[in-house]
Amino acid sequence: MEFNRACLSVALGCSLGACAASEQYPSLAIRDVERVSGTMQPAEPEPYVPPPTPPAVLDRLDRLSVEAADAHQAFLAEVPQARRTVASARGSAAGDDSWARAQIALAGLGASRSRATIALADLDRLHLEAALEGRTLEQIDVVRGQVSVQVEEQNRTIGSLQAELRP
Fold first, then answer.
1. Is 139 helix (H, G, I), strand (E, B) or coil?
2. pLDDT, tens digit, for every residue of 20-43?
3. What is the domain partition of the chain in residue ranges?
């Protein structure tokens, strides 16, 4: 039994010595590739460049701009007559002929305004579609802003004329 232990010890010692003396095995030291380096900062994202507005949308935008401008000009052409009609009905009771003519004149202004508000609603739809598609909004917003200003002016005019008819 003693002999077996001695043989086993000699065999283990020789095998361990052979491993340590051999140059076939790589070093267990940390290699340069394994070292952590860097700043740990996220990469800068590339800026988003929206695709250009399709020609069909630009054509529709031009048509809506013209429609709104025509509606505004028609509205402005009707305002002087409506002002005269409302001025002649000032102080009259509801249901009088002059009051009824003033109401008809205001309805005519409302009809002209409705053409502009329809164009504004279509521009809002174009804006929404372009935003959902990630397209550029500048051209749409410029026309939309112009039409919105015109509609607000029309609303103020009609409101002031209606206020003149109130007793």
1. helix
2. 555 688 788 888 777 777 667 888
3. 55-165
